[in-house]
């Protein structure tokens, strides 16, 4: 699947502003939205466009935004029941970073990698054993840099159907200005 038309709001009450122009989707999200779990934070109100995919293999997207407030973010997300992985761009320490968060056992494990620019192509791909997920950065030449390996994401006991798509969030309440995140080049591959 290579069309954003196959992605739908996971919660239509949360997504207020979506623009679809051909194969480009723009989300404008309000402050106080996030997707994160810690002992003190439990937030799952980030606007998402997702689709169910029974035989997930890999998905990728190019993401860019007007990152200005701490923790402004957008990227790709994969759900399986209460487990999820998100990866993309997150604004921390005054600049955009490549970010990935894995939540497998109820709490989020967060990783950052600085990069130059405002735009990145990110991929989530099922590993060769089929139980883990690789998070990767796709460079302009098409090569892939492995950023993280989430083991045991697909544990074989799953009764839920995975869903995958794009998300954006503005966790901080700095002003009423929405965060604008643009998604391009969506690709989703399933096994047969």
Automatic annotation (TrEMBL):
Coiled-coil ranges from the UniProt annotation: none
Q: Which residues cross the membrane?
A: none
Pfam families (alphabetical): DUF1349
Under the heading InterPro entries, the entry gives:
ConA-like_dom_sf (IPR013320), DUF1349 (IPR009784)
Q: Which SUPFAM superfamilies match?
A: Concanavalin A-like lectins/glucanases
PANTHER family tied to this protein: REGULATION OF ENOLASE PROTEIN 1
The entry's protein name is: Beta-xylosidase C-terminal Concanavalin A-like domain-containing protein
Query: What organism is listed for this UniProt entry?
Result: Planoprotostelium fungivorum
